[in-house]
Amino acid sequence: MAVVSWKEMLLLTGLVMGCYWNSLACGFVFDDVSAILDNKDLRPSTPLRNLFLNDFWGTPMAEERSHKSYRPLTVLTFRLNYLFSELSAASYHLLNIVLHGVVCMLFLRVCRLFLDKTFSLLAALLFAVHPIHTEAVTGVVGRAELLSSIFLLAAFLAYTKSTSTDHSIVWPPIALTVVLVAAATLCKEQGITVVGICCVYEVFVAQGFTLPMMLDTVRQVLQGKDGFPYAVLQTLLKLIVLVISTLLLVIVRVQVIQSQLPVFTRFDNPAAVSPTPSRQLTFNYLLPVNAWLLLNPSELCCDWTMGTIPLVESLLDLRNLATVAFYVFLCLLAHYSVFSRHSSAKTVIMALSLIVLPFIPASNLFFPVGFVVAERVLYVPSMGFCVLVAHGFKIVSHKEQLRKISWLLIGVLLTTHAVKTFNRNWDWESEYTLFTSALKVNKNNAKLWNNVGHALENQNNYAMALRYFLQATRVQPDDIGAHMNVGRTYKNLNKSREAEEAYLVAKSLMPQVIPGKKYATRVAPNHLNVYINLANLIRANDSRLEEADQLYRQAISMRPDFKQAYISRGELLLKMNKLTEARDAYLRALELDSSNADLWYNLAIVNIEMKDPSEALKNFNLALELNPRHKLALFNSALLMQESGELQESENLRFDDLWIWRSQTCSNTQKPVKLNV
Hints:
Number of domains: 2
EC number: 2.4.1.109
Helix content: 55-70%
Distance between the termini: 54 Å
Number of strands: 0
Shape: elongated
Radius of gyration: 29 Å
Largest sheet: none
Transmembrane segments: 90-111, 140-157, 169-186, 192-215, 236-256, 321-339, 351-371
Number of helices: 29
Main location: endoplasmic reticulum
Order of helices and strands: HHHHHHHHHHHHHHHHHHHHHHHHHHHHH
Family: Belongs to the TMTC family.
Enzyme class: transferase
Strand content: under 5%
């Protein structure tokens, strides 16, 4: 295997930095907010073991609302970023750039197995600058792709060394391959597909089989004419070890998600809930859509959910021609690669394995996923695409009359892709720039209108945000979240009547409860917040407190583990002076989240109202154990201790300081902390 020279390393590093240096000016946008800003697993105060108990977003895997994306090694790198720079976005982006550079160098080493020095470098250069990668590199959450790709490529390279010069098995590289596959899978689920790539390499490249040769060998064995050749037995043994290891990883992965698939709504992936044949036609049409993004990444979009790609509902839909053309081309390549003994066939089949196998988990063909198209999942498949392009260019450039023009075209391709990537990075500068750029590509996605509204809302520009939220309801009239956004914005504009009307529309769109069927499996958990938001709005009117309580209880009946409903109901019951019920509501919330200092504080306030100072003091102290800087708990615990005569001299000093703080900043310290989702 030809090594990568230091000049090639410098070239790739310089190209990657040249394309992505402006991403250092970008902030945390889109999914970064949930994965970084809102993820407590990044904080040093969170036990390290939580990374292996929670999903990618910090939600316990056992909870139904969990996304079931188990990527602890990726989250660990986020935590290391936080350790060095807390929430400085530049450090997160810098590490992503470095990781992309590492992937490019490993990819070059892989290409050297199937292409000569010049064209393998060409494949790596194309991969380094391809605009489809901006979501994976410039979006911080794309680190899952980057890390998984590093381990995937390393696992493959390790496997290629598992056969010695005398054709015997070398076991250490196989053991290393299994470890690296596990690491790739712990970064992102698609990492496990490298096992399939290794199998393809072993059969068609290392052993040099074609499909007719394989069938002939099997036929002779079945007819008793001959046994399996020793080389074939060696191959089978290695593949059996790989397959068994893969099955064990799959079993562990299924156990981690507790045999539950995540809950997705029809807004995330409309085709997933569509009837036959619309579902099958649409999912198959998405394959040429993804291929087109690799071929022509001129119009990129950060979100392809909802109405971005209309359903293919009929066999007469002209888009089916694209699907047929895609499958015909794929079959021709596959036929050539498994039937031909030409050396280029090995290159083609490895390119196809890199394209097809890593894409299968995201293809929707075997199980639904939470998106229609996602550019970041094309990160690994684009490797196979780049190999095909380089291989095709090699064939064309060897023709004398096409050599100059082909080199010119490849130069133009690399330049335009690099410029597109650089410019695309600016779209990720902020949520507003990201989602407005997406609306230029697609105006039929209500989620994009909602997200621009959220960005304006974060700037306190509620009037402009309302325009985008209302447009989202027009684009997707049955979008519950859009109507909730309208209601919340009207509330921020002090238009309570309009806010209530919007919430009632959202509530009317909620699926009806079906006896014997879990409600949580049919609706997005955040949509249940419509009951909370509506109740919070109407409870400002003292004559409607019972009506608000009914809404909280309705939300709890639909989802018994809905923590926020218990919290909000506890606040209401305290206001209604139903102290026992308020205490029970907070206790139930604490069963769901015992690490929330504000909840312990709120429970202590209820204890004070119930004339139980000893229990209140105990709960204040529990709040302080979880958050020693909880000023309200500090003050009230000191106040209780002073009143009971238990305050020591050192605690009196603390109390005096807190009294000054209270007089300056707090009008009423004996109020529950308002907790919102």
